[in-house]
Amino acid sequence: MRAEPRPLLELDGVQAYYGLAHVLQGVSLTVGPGELVALLGRNGAGKTTTVRSIMGLVSVRGGRIRCDGRDVVGLPAEQVARAGVGYVPEDRRMFPGLTVRENFRLAALGSRRPRPQQQAAVRRVLEVFPQLEPHLDRDASRLSGGQQQMVAVGRALICGQKLLLVDEITQGLAPNIAADLGRMLRRVADEGLGVLLVEQNSQMALELADRVFVLDQGVVVHSGDAAALRADPTWMAQHLQL
Ligand SMILES: Nc1ncnc2c1ncn2[C@@H]1O[C@H](COP(=O)(O)OP(=O)(O)OP(=O)(O)O)[C@@H](O)[C@H]1O
Questions:
Q1: CB-count burial class (<10 Å; 0-12, 13-18, 19+) for 62
Q2: Going by CA atoms, what residue is nearest to atom 25 of ligand 1?
Q3: How close is the Cα of 43 to the center of ligand 1, in Å?
Q4: pLDDT in tens, 100-135
Q5: Given the DSSP bridges, would you call strands 36-40 and 211-216 parallel, antiparallel or unpaired?
Q6: Vertex 151 angle, CA 148 and 156, to 5°
Q7: Is the pLDDT of residue 236 over 80?
Q8: Ligand 1 pocket test, candidate residues 47, 201, 202, most atoms within 8 A of CB
Q9: Which residue of 11, 14, 18, 24 sits with most ligand 1 atoms within 8 Å of its CB, as the best mutation to test the pocket?
C-alpha cells in the first residue's frame, strides 16, 4: 500500500481571536502536495482569518498549524514564508514603480537559489502566465487587476514556495479573467504545489478543487471530495445557500 504524502498544510483545532472576539473555533483542515483545496463559506465565516492565522497575522490561542511538517503558530509572517508558504492576499500589494521584471527579480533573489535556477523559475512563470510577457517592463502597479494577480502568484512561485494561500484573488475581475486565473492555479497544483483557495465564486472553486471545506461561524461545517460534491446537485444549495 502506498503511503499518503505528508500534508504541506495541517490545521488542527485552530482557535483564533481578534482581541476578545473568538473568530475561529476549532478549524481543522489539510492540503497535500498537488492538491487544490477550496475554503468556502458565507461572508464573515472566517475564511480570511484562517489564512491570516496560518501567516501569523492573527492571534492563535489554541490548536496546531504545521507547514511542511513545521509548527508555525507564534512565528512571524516572514518565518512562515521561509517554511515554504506563499500568501497572495486580496489586495495583491504591488510595489509602485517596480516593473513586472523587477518584481520577479526581487522574488528570485529572495529565494536564495543559484542564478540559473532563478532564471529557470522566471521562465516557468512566464509559461504559466504568457499574458505577462508583453508587460515585463511595465510598472506592475499599473497593470489590470487580473494581470497584477498573475504577478502576485508568479512572485510566490519564483520564491520556490511549496504551498500557496490564495485569498479571493478573482474578486472584481471579469469572469473570463477569473476563469483564466483559476485554470492557472489548477495547473500550479497539478505540477505538485499545494493550493488553499479562498473564493467567493463557489461554483468556480468547486470545479477547480480536489477537496472542499465549508466554514460557518468559525467552524468547518462540511468537507468533502469536490468530484463527489459536483455530482450532487443539491449540495451547493444545502451547504452554501446559493
Ligand atoms: N480586524 C478585525 N477585527 C475584528 N474582527 C474582525 C477583523 N477582521 C475580521 N473580523 C471578524 O471576524 C469574522 C470573520 O471574518 P473573515 O474576514 O475571516 O471572514 P471571511 O469568511 O473571510 O468573509 P469575507 O468573505 O467577507 O471576507 C467576522 O465576523 C469579521 O467581522
A1: middle
A2: 43
A3: 8
A4: 999 999 888 877 778 888 889 899 899 989 999 999
A5: parallel
A6: 135
A7: no
A8: 47
A9: 18
What is the CATH code for 9-93+162-240?
3.40.50.300
Distances, alpha carbon 182 to alpha carbons 16, 81, 166, 208, 213, in Å: 29, 23, 11, 7, 17
Which ipTM did the prediction report?
0.96
Ligand 1: residues with CB < 6 A are 18, 21, 23, 41, 43-49
Strands (E), 96-191: 163-167
Cα 122 to ligand 1 centroid, rounded to whole Å: 35
Domain ranges across the chain = 9-93+162-240
**The cell 508568479 sits on which residue?**
154
